[in-house]
Amino acid sequence: MGAGQSRSSNQLVVPQANQALEQLKYEVAQELGIQIPQDGYYGFMATRDTGAIGGHITRRLVQIAEQQLAGKFTR
């Protein structure tokens, strides 16, 4: 990005990944036993719960990336 340009932390670099990330969020929340609000408002959720979901999503994305990288170098 050039000078003066910024990107919101909520804006996806690859917008096509939005649906997959949403699905991943719900899968992780279900695995952790955390209910995601149906109205999409997270203001009443405990910070601990939203942090746990985000942390597990990050771990899962790193794992996916590592598997893809490993696959590129083992062919």
Return the structural class: mainly alpha
Mean pLDDT: 87
The run of helices and strands is: HH
Strand composition percent: under 5%
Counting DSSP H or I runs of 4 or more residues, the number of helices is 2
Termini separation: 34 Å
Number of domains: 1
Described by the principal axes of the CA atoms, the overall outline is elongated
Secondary structure tally: strands? 0
- Major β-sheet annotation: none
Radius of gyration: 15 Å
Percent helix range: 55-70%
Which spans have pLDDT < 50 for at least 5 consecutive residues? none
Describe what this molecule looks like in 3D.
The protein is mainly alpha-helical and 75 residues long. It has one domain. The chain has 2 helices and no strands. The protein is elongated, with a radius of gyration of 15 Å. The model has no long low-confidence stretch (mean pLDDT 87).
Keywords:
75 residues, mainly alpha, elongated
Secondary structure elements and their pairing?
Elements: H1 18-32, H2 47-73
